[in-house]
Amino acid sequence: MRIAVASFSHETCTFVPVKTTYDMFKDFIVRGNAIFEHAKTYPNYIRGFMKVAEEDGAELVGILVAGQTSATGYSGWITLDAFDRIVGEILDGLKNSGPFDGVLLALHGAMAVEGVPKPEAEIVRRVRGVVGHIPIMVTLDLHANEDHELAEVADAVFILKTYPHVDSEDIGIIAARCMVKTIRGEFKPVMAFRKPKLVTASIYQATDRPPMKLVYDRCREWEAKGVYCASVAAGYAYADVSDIGASVFVVTNGDRDLAERAAQDISDLIWSLRYEFTKPIPKPREGVAEVLRFVASGVRPILIAEHSDRIGDGTHVLRELILQGAKNFVIGGIADPNALEWLKNNAKIGDYVKIKVGGWAHPISGEPVEISGKLEFIGSLEYTLVGPMGRGRRVHEDLVALIDMGEGRHVIISKRLRAPMDDQGFKALGIEPRLKDIIVLKDRIHHRAFWDSIVALDYPIDSPGLGPADLTILEYHNVPDDVYPIGKFWRDKKV
């Protein structure tokens, strides 16, 4: 039994003006069976595939893994050239390494490509054109935007059920077991699909609390009734694409009626919860003021989740902390490669420096903020993640700086969007975050897998940014008129 494995995964923020080119991908592409060595180091879909293959004696053939880029933070539309070249490499790998009994594709679902309206469905179509009528099964991120086209071309689709995403290996196992049983003739995958016409901001999609917890609880109820896997993609609001929003994929063993009933029930539940996904979140001025009141009352440490910053250079929360006289805080990262380069060339550890940081990549990020203090560190960092998100993964940061502004105020400057998923990214710089009153991370939900056991309060702030909670501030051109709350029908209804 030979099963090909490939991955092309990218979460594209189309509101970022920088296009994602092949040159941004190329240095991070892993090819051939090297993808399995890469996958061994931390929990992921492919490691799940590997566990099942080992148990069942299947041969996995590595083709390619692509997705990481050199972008400062999130990047915009993927160029057609980049898409065609990477997918072309996958197709060439399949042609040169076949024949196969099945193909496992670890995709994302929120990829946006110039001139390709449904990229993941297109990847499956092109793969099908090479391998023929053998099972093709797909894993997706919870933030996928998909529609009926993927359901029509893939034999089965399996989606994460957790946000923070701590079940990628588990979903890989579920997909691979389905593949092995299908090849053996022990399983006949039947899949039903629904599209609830709802798009939600990522900050509302945490799966350990309502409203999303109710959705995934319902999925598990149907699985207890005989469904093999009930999957929901909550969707990704920051791609201006025609298949934006939530989707439901239900896989059963040959039971079409069960799949259809489950998919419709889950879709109806999602639609019934639509108003729970639009509750307002504090803006920087009011949010920081409330955090400081909590600190004054003895609630600490508090983690501010500056969730809307998709580039990493946003200065809104830092500015408010300074203006409102906050002390004993740490900013987990302001992405500013130009500031870093200046520090590298003009200062050394121990020097007093004055420098403007952030606010350079996009007007929505805010104005640069001037900070001054002692340069405590500048250089590269190496550390290993210990939390649930990526446990065991080695992290290398080419260049990072730490500035001590006095009164316990620390600002970390990074080359790229930086949101440490556990405390190691702070401890590597000599910062013990547990001793801070306020920790600021540019993240939405993932950090909670570790940080909720450390902090007294997780407090999201909706700064201006390219990933806001209030989706109506973004200008969409490609979304369906009837998708709630951003389609033309719903926007006109509010006027």
- Taking Cα atoms only, what radius of gyration do you get, to the nearest Å? 23 Å
The outline comes out as globular
What's the count of strands? 17
CATH topology heading of the largest domain:
Rossmann fold
Content-based structural category:
alpha/beta
Query: Distance between termini?
Result: 59 Å
Second CATH tier, the architecture of the largest domain: 3-Layer(aba) Sandwich
Q: Largest sheet at a glance?
A: 8 strands, mixed
Question: How many helical stretches?
Answer: 15
Q: In percent, how much strand structure appears in the residues?
A: 15-25%
Query: What integer is the average pLDDT?
Result: 97
Describe the model.
By secondary structure, this protein is of the alpha/beta class. The protein has 2 domains: 2-277, Response regulator (Rossmann fold, 3-Layer(aba) Sandwich); 284-468, no CATH class. Helices cover 31% and strands 23% of the residues. It contains 15 helices and 17 strands. The strands form 3 sheets. An 8-stranded mixed sheet has the order 12-13-14-15-11-16-10-17, sandwiched between helices. A 6-stranded mixed sheet has the order 2-3-1-4-5-6, sandwiched between helices. Strand 14 (394-406) and strand 15 (409-414) form a beta hairpin. The longest helix has 18 residues, at 80-97. The radius of gyration is 23 Å and the shape is globular. The mean pLDDT is 97.
Characteristic key phrases:
single chain, 495 residues, alpha/beta, Rossmann fold, 2 domains, eight-stranded mixed beta sheet, six-stranded mixed beta sheet, 15 helices, 23% strand, globular
